[in-house]
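Before the break, one more example. Copy the sequence into your notebook; we will annotate it together after we see the structure.
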Amino acid sequence: MSRPISLALGAKNVLVMSAEPDEARTIERFCELCERAAQYGLHVCLEFAIYTGVRTLAHAASIVAKAKRSNASVLIDALHFSRPGGLPAHVKQVDPALFRYAQICDACPDMPGPTDTPALIREARTGAVPGDCRSSRARARQARIPGALSPWGCVT
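Here is what the structure looks like once it is written out:
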């Protein structure tokens, strides 16, 4: 994490996922990253995915709460949120202060199931073109995901 690079890019957030199956170790490493990021004025957003060590929104929110770092937050990726059966009601159960931004993407009806880990990882790395499937923005508004009315960009 280089200060000149983050400043040049205008970075405000660091996105992180954990492959660590041990929750205590995940929290320890997450806290270390938050401390490093704080030196540069960056927030650390913990993203969850069914095929990682942090599998659900509730789990990510629990880890962020246990970390007790002012620059720690939870990131919702709409696709990863939908895979383990995420519902708008689940978002409402999390303190809104834990959200900095959300990743909104299209989820196709033929997306891999939550237990097909190799296909999930392949799709995460080579996903569909935005707009190919359902209306992401409408789903985000319906779920009242924080940031759904914020400026939009495209990640490919």
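Residues 45 and 153 are 18 Å apart (CA to CA). Residues 3-143 form a domain with the TIM Barrel fold (CATH 3.20.20.150). Try to locate both features in your own notes.
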